[in-house]
Amino acid sequence: SLEFPDTAGEAAKEGTLAHSLCELLIANKLKPLSRSEYKKLYTPITQSEYFNGQMLEHCEEFATFVMERYNEALAHTPDAQIYLEQRLNFDDYMAGQFGTGDVIIVADHTLQVIDFKYGKGVGVASHENKQMMIYGLGALSAFDFIYDITEVHMTIYQPRTDNISTYSTTAEALKHWGDTELRTK
Q: Do 120 and 160 touch, CB atoms closer than 8 A?
């Protein structure tokens, strides 16, 4: 039997490592860790066979991008919130389904869902992207009762294909899409 490398599995491991690094870099910008705490979390990442300088650079750029978005939200909503690796429940539309939102920023009337994609294959467009719209619905379900959300911005950040794109819609339109195109129960 011929042996083929498991490139899908490799890409998934690489992506998981990049997500862990992004989460650490952003968390450290939000609330700086002590040097020893940071080193304890950072060192195992750097020791992975998937880690390299390019990954670090992409993750640092993503962390900067996220902080810019968060600071913009804080400028008009002083108590804006940011959530990293937030579990989202899609139960309202798809029974028993859930996912993890990489970055969610919630401010008055505005919700941002930011998805970091480390793949280097095909660029993924954000415009009416079904996965992003499902994540938007999950985030709306989680946060709409605290902040009266009217706009949802869904961003795909894919540094290895030079793709950063945002699709914006109203909360009402997104819920209508969920009710008419997605609902399974």
A: yes
The Cα–Cα gap between 104 and 96 comes to 21
Could you give the C-alpha distances from 27 to 84, 100, 110, 159, in angstroms and in order? Answer: 8, 16, 22, 20
Q: Two tokens at 169?
A: 């819609």
At 68, list the tokens.
């810019």
Contact 59, 65 (CB under 8 A): no
Residues in the chain with pLDDT < 70? 1-8, 184-185
Overall residue count recorded for the chain in this entry: 185
At residue 120, the pLDDT reads 86
The whole-angstrom separation of Cα 122 and Cα 35 is 38
Find, among 126, 111, 38, 28, the residue nearest to 70 by Cα.
Answer: 111
* CB contact burial 125-139 (16+ within 10 A = b; e otherwise): ebeebeebbbbbbbb
pLDDT recorded at residue 1: 46
